[in-house]
UniProtKB/TrEMBL annotation:
Record keyword Transmembrane present: no
Domain Pyridine nucleotide-disulphide oxidoreductase dimerisation: 332-429
Name assigned to this protein: NADH oxidase
Signal peptide: none
Superkingdom, taxonomy of origin: Bacteria
Cofactors that this protein relies on: FAD
Enzyme Commission number(s) from the entry: 1.6.3.4
Family recorded in the similarity comment: Belongs to the class-III pyridine nucleotide-disulfide oxidoreductase family.
Length: 443
């Protein structure tokens, strides 16, 4: 059995490892147009902001590791087309050599592409995007320039907020723009995002929410200002972090697509073509909160989808258990984690939900090391099943969100959580735990 994998980041790597480690009869061919593989993009802001010493450890494997396992790997190679009827992909490498690579099974792990608004001045020098390692390097070089004093970040999602912090840590004046009324609006309700917004302001970031960038103005070929619906701002560099769209170029004419263009896959990652699987950011996922197919581009989802596709191709039938979209962020020492749906997202999806909020200290008041914790649990009003949770604190409360992820996956009701057996020790928490207290407060 010969499997060709197009794309060698998190999803493609997980699929390749699954096949190579478990199925000795597999011939695996890996193809990627990039110069590197396995880059942990979530660490870009950490090294750009000099919170870690270097970027080297953001790569967790190498081409050599896969060659040693028996894979044939082609980096800096572009797949120009796929012949789904004859089952081969057409390739061209950096030297200009072309060939066709046949397959028994094909895995599309082509990821996503950054959204690039078609506005005047988008091609000016000093306007950057942030996804690939090379783009992170360009942004890092930009922030190293003494003449770059004011940086505009477009998009206040996770990447935008993190890179805004990084630029501020590098001593730049930072302006953060988003069309949404708050930062992080995709995953959190306003009661949480307002705290992050204030954190950003307190650390010197100038926020411009509900403000759309309409054009860039240049001087001598380089960006010098940006214009919005509300005004014009002089800037020395721009970092775009608006979001991503699925990269469906190779299969969009042949395979069934989701409404946003992602490849529509079943619970085994199989597309509408039985010999083609799609994984990672180019494919759909099944949401346990929504109880339907959706699109959530996260590295964790990519890894799981790669494992599932690998086992099914290898001969072990395995279905996804679904995802919750669990995620987190830490900016200027403020930690926020969420899973499932916010109230806003649930209402937008047509769910009738209720929620319960609670705020307290992490530990008893007599403990010297302490901080406030805010929690919201979202549940379906009629069925009372938990469909989302959000938590925030300067404490590391991150592990708590996994409890809610499992609760959503298993269809646990808010009432089941009211008397959940949660241990108490002053070093860790309160006798009346905020998770319990939030659940008890549900209507």
């Amino acid at each position: 059995m010969k499997t060709v994998i197009i794309g060698t980041n998190h999803a493609g790597i997980a699929a390749a490892n699954t096949l190579l480690d478990n199925y000795p009869n597999q011939e695996v061919v890996m193809i990627d147009r990039n110069t590197n593989l396995s880059y942990l993009g979530c660490g870009t802001a950490l090294w750009v902001g000099r919170q870690i010493d270097s970027y080297e450890n953001l790569f967790y494997t190498s081409s050599k590791a896969f060659e040693e396992k028996g894979a044939s790997i082609h980096m800096e190679t572009t797949v120009t087309s796929v012949d789904f009827a004859k089952k081969f992909v057409s390739c061209i490498n950096k030297e200009g050599n072309t060939w066709n690579e046949s397959y028994d099974k094909l895995i599309l792990a082509t990821g996503s592409l950054p959204i690039s608004p078609d506005i005047p001045g988008k091609d000016l020098d000093g306007v950057h995007f942030l996804k690939l390692f090379q783009e992170g390097q360009e942004v890092d070089k930009e922030l190293s320039k003494e003449e770059v004093k004011t940086v505009a970040v477009i998009g206040a999602g996770y990447i935008g907020v993190e890179i805004a912090e990084a630029a501020k840590r590098r001593g730049k004046q930072v302006l953060l723009f988003d069309v949404a009324p708050t930062s992080l609006s995709t995953y959190y309700d306003e009661q949480f995002t307002a705290d992050m917004d204030q954190r950003l302001v307190d650390h010197g970031i100038e926020v411009h929410f509900s403000e759309r960038v309409t054009e860039y103005h240049g001087k001598d070929g380089r960006v010098a200002a940006l214009k919005t619906e509300k005004g014009e701002y002089p800037v020395d560099a721009v970092i775009n972090a608006i979001g991503f769209i699925p990269n469906n170029q190779l299969g969009k004419e042949h395979l069934k697509l989701f409404k946003n263009g992602a490849y529509l896959v079943d619970r085994r990652q199989q597309t509408s073509d039985p010999d083609v699987y799609a994984i990672g950011d180019c494919a759909t996922v099944y949401s346990n909160a929504l109880q339907e197919v959706t699109y959530i581009a996260l590295a964790t989802n990519a890894v799981r989808s790669g494992i599932i596709a690998g086992h099914n191709i290898g001969g072990t039938e395995l279905e996804t258990i679904g995802v919750q979209g669990s995620n987190g962020i830490s900016v200027f020492g403020y930690n926020m984690v969420s899973t499932g749906l916010s109230v806003k997202a649930a209402v937008k999806a047509g769910l009738e939900v209720s929620y319960t909020d609670y705020e307290d200290l992490q530990r008893p008041g007599f403990m010297k090391e302490n901080a406030a914790v805010k929690i919201r649990i979202v549940y379906e009003t009629k069925s009372r099943r938990v469909v989302g949770a959000q938590m925030a604190s300067t404490e590391d409360i991150s592990m708590g969100i996994h409890l809610f992820s499992l609760a959503i996956e298993e269809g646990v009701t808010i009432d089941k959580m009211k008397l959940l057996d949660i241990f108490f020790l002053p070093h860790f928490n309160q006798p009346y735990n905020y998770i319990t207290m939030a659940a008890l407060g549900a209507k």
